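Inverse folding, one chain.
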């Protein structure tokens, strides 16, 4: 068990010959940490006076984690490319890969995912709505996406909702080109 020494500062003598004591810094009572069971074994203590082996532990390798042939599951990502840059985008994993997606432009800062979803929820195959926000300020970047399962609802929503007010502004709808930005989709295109 480790014990911190008690530190007491000497008194300060002020010019008018009065002695003012400094506040003393006193360490808290020693804390004994519990020993974890399982893959931890107690270590030998270094001092001869302390025979309590619960205060120091040494980790040992677990046989399962030491197996070099064991493959770890890879995290799924989507590799994207646009503007001459390539990056991994995990946010596309929350969307259905076989959906029909609409780009919603000119959204105001008051538009949320729920408000955008309510505007398009009248269509039966509506799946998800998302407003893209700045990571730091949390203000909207002025656009979002809405996805549908049925292509007929997709076309119907494009015709009916283009120019309708969502929040304080009329929305501008376009077909989303998110599939064209995927690297694997670009490699399949014959050039």
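Residues assigned per position:
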């Amino acid at each position: 068990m480790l014990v911190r020494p008690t530190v007491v500062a000497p008194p300060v003598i002020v010019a008018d010959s009065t002695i003012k004591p400094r506040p003393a810094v006193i360490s808290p009572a020693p804390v004994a940490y519990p020993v974890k069971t399982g893959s931890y074994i107690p270590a030998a203590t270094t001092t001869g006076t302390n025979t309590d082996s619960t205060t120091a532990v040494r980790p040992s390798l677990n046989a399962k984690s030491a197996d070099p042939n064991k493959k770890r599951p890879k995290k799924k990502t989507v590799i994207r490319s646009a503007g001459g840059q390539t990056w991994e985008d995990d946010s596309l994993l929350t969307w259905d890969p076989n959906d029909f997606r609409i780009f919603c432009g000119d959204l105001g800062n008051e538009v949320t995912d729920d408000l955008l979803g309510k505007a398009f929820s009248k269509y039966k195959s509506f799946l998800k709505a998302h407003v893209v926000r700045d990571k730091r300020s949390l203000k909207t970047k002025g656009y979002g996406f809405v996805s549908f399962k049925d292509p007929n609802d997709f076309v119907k929503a494009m015709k009916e909702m283009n120019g309708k007010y969502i929040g304080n502004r009329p929305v501008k709808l376009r077909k989303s080109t998110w599939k064209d930005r995927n690297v694997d989709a670009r490699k399949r295109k014959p050039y």
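Residues 94-175 form a domain with the Alpha-Beta Plaits fold (CATH 3.30.70.330). The longest strand covers residues 140-148.
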